[in-house]
Amino acid sequence: MKHRLPTITILDIPIVRATELEAMTEIRYLAEQPEPAMVIYVNAHTLELTTRDSEYRKIVQNAAIVMNDGIGVSMAAKIVGKETFPANLNGTDLTPLILQLAAERGWRVFLLGAAPGVAEKAAAKFLATTPGLEIAGAHSGYFKAGELEGVIQQIREARTDVLIVGMGNPVQEQWLARHQAQTGARLGVGVGAFLDFSAGVFPRAPLWMQKMKVEWLYRMSREPKRLWKRYLLGGPVFLAHVAWHTLTRKKK
Which of the two residues, 24 and 224, has the higher pLDDT score? Predict the structure, then answer.
């Protein structure tokens, strides 16, 4: 599907350059089209993953809309060119707006992902905070290969319009690319740890850290063993990769 919004291309991935309102207008348009559309939020880690896996890179390139998440992507945009992003379109802030839009438009939402019981807790939170929202169902992201068809059937029989998938990168996008069409969902959204945040499994950073775009620092402080390499080493490596990629492209 051709992008209808302007984009900034970073490491061969076209990322929409849009305000929050423009992004939500585009998402509404996509959800009302007959063919399935995938929504992806990319941060520095996600973009770096696309350089190591050509199949994953194609999945991200072919998404209906790819949005910028985090300061790393904003810094990369300045390396690539003079323009940057007018807003930080991260999944934790934008996905609630998608749920609100679903409530307004009467779209049925299915939650898939996280550990057993987490999606159900998140569903209860969404129903309490979003009047009119219809949760068609919820299912853990941990299931065996032999259970796959049953999960797909459950989503399809729930008459799902919007499928929220929280399995982390790159698994959630790979899952949507392979199975979204079978589920019948028109809009598939990869949300990372959003279900965990919403269910209270992982607390979100204080508002001042969110506004300063250093939420990554809070997350790393909560899970240092798992995340320190991604943020302290991965970030600089990513920016160096962007700079080198941009320089070599200009020389051609």
Answer: 24
